Amino acid sequence: MEYRSLGRTGVKVSALCLGCMMFGGKTPPKDSYDIIDKAIDDGVNFIDTANVYSVGRSEEVTGEALKRNGKRDRVVLATKVHGVMSGDDPNMQGNSRRHIIQQCEASLRRLQTDYIDLYQIHRPQPDIPIDETLRALDDLVRAGKVRYLGSSTFAAWQLVESFAVSKELGLNRFICEQPPYNLLDRRIERELLPMAQTYGMAVIPWSPLGGGLLTGKYKRGEEPPEGARFADTSNPIYRRRLNDRIYDVVDGLEPIAKEKNCTLSQLALAWVLRQPGVTSPIIGPRTMEQYTDNLGALDVEITDDDRKQINRIIRRGDSVAPFYEAEFGPHPYRV
Predict the structure, then answer these.
(1) Confidence band (pLDDT; 50, 70, 90) for 331?
(2) CB 180 within 8 A of CB 206
(3) What fold, for 3-313?
(4) Domains of the chain: which residue ranges?
(5) Which pLDDT tens digit goes with each residue over 214-227?
(6) Is 53 known to be catalytic?
(7) In Å, how far are 72, 78, 98, 110 from 113, measured between CA atoms?
């Protein structure tokens, strides 16, 4: 396993981060425990979840897995706050001091731990001043409940603003950003990745496989496989992402994967893994088979010629499916 610095900190994390969104939901607890145990045995020391995943159930299953195997202190454990935790309570969501502190305590209980290594704001919320959010997070760090702070799906300008506020007020700053990044949406290359490299931020992309669109299981002219995420035609986000242009990218990538004797998903994941400025892509396996396939991306080499060929299939900074969709104004939580 390759280990990389978590931004400007002294912490080393595995080149792949295990995402736990499926655990306790589509993935039963027993299977979730097995995947977590196998990942740690394989050298993965970076685990990411969120309070909103299955409304706390993912955190519970993740915490139970680490209690069972006794390896909590060996992993860098990350979780997130922002999403709606109660539909009828307007204060059980967002980036307010009240919600952040309340949900940190709840996450600690669900994860069965005394501290969270990386506590992330799941989405920006411009109608709440960033200083309120940062002060609450800083208090959690000073209390020893959180080690480091991060963000997810923030714009580059929002992060630079947060750095200025942290410096002005003497607060702990964000050290990590979790953006969507894959071969169907490369827009973070325009500003976010250069900003992160300039300011020493770690970058841990979510959805490096495009939510499954880059696995090869979706075929042009065919209905999505039964039970697949994008088979849900009622979801407007999925309808926008599952468009005809994605197949042009997939069709162009398949010969490259075949030449490398790897799966399409391994090629797509390896490409993100080897992009400048990327720390650890987040894999989100539902099954052990998917986890094993994802791990194989570590052995896939991406050459300069590969990058040139891929850049001809989808240009740098371009997008054919919208993943980088954070609404930089008041908005409901969206996965």
Answers:
(1) very low
(2) yes
(3) TIM Barrel (3.20.20)
(4) 3-313
(5) 999 999 988 888 88
(6) yes
(7) 8, 12, 21, 8
Q: What is the 3-state secondary structure (H, E, C) of the chain?
A: CCEEECCCCCCEEECCEEECCCECCCECHHHHHHHHHHHHHCCCCEEECCCCHHHHHHHHHHHHHHHHHCCHHHCEEEEEECCCCCCCCCCCCCCCHHHHHHHHHHHHHHHCCCCEEEEEECCCCCCCCHHHHHHHHHHHHHCCCEEEEEEECCCHHHHHHHHHHHHHHCCCCEEEEECECECCECHHHCCHHHHHHHHCCEECCECCCHHHCCCCCCCCCCCCCCCCHHHCCCCHHHHHHCCCHHHHHHHHHHHHHHHHCCCHHHHHHHHHHCCCCCCCCEECCCCHHHHHHHHHHHHCCCCHHHHHHHHHHCCCCCECCCCCCCCCCCCCCCC
Q: Look up the pTM and report it.
A: 0.94
Identify the active-site residue in 53, 181, 218, 238.
53
Q: What angle do CA 21, 129, 127 make, to 5 degrees?
A: 70
Tokens of 267: 């090629």
Distance linking the first and last C-alpha atoms of the chain: 29
